[in-house]
Design brief:
Order of helices and strands: EEHHHEEEEEHHHHEEEE
Number of domains: 2
Shape: globular
Largest sheet: 5 strands, antiparallel
Mean pLDDT: 96
Number of helices: 7
Strand order of the largest sheet: 7-11-10-9-8
Number of strands: 11
Radius of gyration: 17 Å
CATH class of the largest domain: Alpha Beta
CATH topology of the largest domain: Ribosomal Protein L22, Chain A
Length: about 210
């Protein structure tokens, strides 16, 4: 089982990252399928997406000890059927990540690529640009993007604008560490979040639990 990173918080929240090296057949043989899951997999035609789907369900099965049968709300938020646990899922090139918790949670991961920096004007605000300027911009952009995706998944606020209504406070990227983020949504009180992150040569990972 190629779990490359795993951590937990007080044995109540569990995060695991899987590096996908198996074939689809090998992954499927490890999974306890329900009829709903078989039907969900049939709807996925892309071979890479099928591998990501299988790996994420195996992680859910591993972390929860429950059948990894997941449905989604109208907003796309995953729900673990017949369980009160919160589940959040992320995929990137060759990897899957799952976080399960009794609390609101979020996780996001991305592989290193110039594409994130090319889109940075859409999600990096002037406050963040000020502390990024002249530094390792690709790393900052990737971590900030993952952090804001994590905030979005955690808070579940529809229609939030990543650039204007989310702020990631200044930080200096290390191989792993913590971040602070805020959501400033319309007239609602400011919501503050503590985030954790991990940076490797193969992926960026940010989570909240």
């Amino acid at each position: 089982m190629p779990v490359v990173f795993e951590t937990n918080k007080e044995n109540k929240s569990f995060l695991s990252v899987w590096k996908i090296k198996e074939t689809e057949k090998q992954l499927a043989e490890l999974l306890s399928f329900t009829e709903l899951m078989r039907n969900q997999l049939k709807l996925i035609s892309n071979s890479e997406k099928r591998l990501e789907w299988l790996a994420s369900r195996l992680l859910i099965q591993r972390l929860s000890g429950l059948p990894p049968c997941v449905s989604h709300t109208s907003s796309g938020k995953p729900n673990l059927n017949k369980s009160d646990l919160n589940v959040t899922i992320s995929h990137t090139k060759g990897f899957a990540a799952v976080l399960i918790s009794s609390q609101a949670c979020g996780v996001d991961m991305e592989y290193p690529s110039s594409r994130i920096s090319k889109l940075s004007e859409r999600f990096v605000n002037p406050t963040e640009e000020k502390y990024i300027s002249g530094r390792d911009e690709p790393t900052y952009h990737a971590v900030i993007w993952c952090a804001k995706e994590t905030l979005y998944k955690t808070a579940g606020i529809q229609g939030i604008i990543f650039k204007d209504q989310m702020v990631i406070d200044p930080f200096l990227p290390e191989k792993s560490g913590t971040l602070s983020g805020r959501i400033l949504f319309e007239d609602s009180p400011v919501q503050e979040y503590d985030l954790s992150y991990k940076i490797t040569d193969e992926y960026y990972l940010v989570w909240h639990w």
